[in-house]
Specification:
Blueprint lengths: L4 E2 L5 E6 L17 H12 L12 E13 L7 E10 L2 E11 L5 E13 L4 E7 L8 E9 L2 H11 L1
Antiparallel strand pairs: 1-5, 2-7, 3-6, 3-8, 4-5, 4-7
Length: 161
């Protein structure tokens, strides 16, 4: 598990929202045939995050595979990080995915796999960048954040070992 940091201690720039379908359980393909269950799930995805009824209040472990290809002009030898931010019932936290110094070409790729421990289903999950100065431009050429299912993760670990 990665160390979570309260976001009030970080200066973050939000890059994108992670779709709720990546971290919320949905109906099975069989259940999707039932129009009532399908509509219920779609309504859950569309809910305003501030008004969301957090049904699952127990601990939730989510693993994300994240990657970003970024360009940051006028930033040679500056260290930046790709961060996953989330808010649960206890507060807003961030987990660092990867960090690196920007090369002389002002571009870099940050990637990694992180696990977050949330109390209940998170209200939201964002992909963010830290280490930027005020008003500094950032161009994100590619950004991917995908949920890693535990069966997939364990088979990847077995392949590496």
């Amino acid at each position: 598990m990665n160390e979570k940091i309260p976001t009030k201690f970080l200066k973050l720039k939000k890059l994108a929202d992670v779709p709720r379908s990546e971290y919320m359980d949905g109906p099975s393909p069989k259940e999707l045939r039932d129009a009532k269950k399908r509509k219920s799930f779609l309504n859950l995805l569309r809910k305003d995050s501030g008004k969301q009824n957090n049904v699952n209040r127990g601990p939730v472990s989510l693993t994300f595979n994240a990657a970003a290809w970024m360009r940051v002009p006028d930033s040679a030898n500056q260290k930046v990080a790709l961060v996953i931010c989330y808010k649960d019932s206890t507060g807003e936290y961030a987990v660092v995915v990867d960090e690196a110094d920007i090369s002389e070409s002002y571009s870099l790729m940050l990637s990694g796999c992180v696990t977050i421990e949330s109390k209940g289903t998170p209200e939201y999950v964002h992909a963010c960048c830290s280490g930027l100065n005020d008003g500094q431009l950032t161009f994100v050429d590619e950004l991917h954040v995908q949920s890693v299912k535990s069966a997939t993760l364990s088979s990847e670990v077995r392949q590496i070992a």
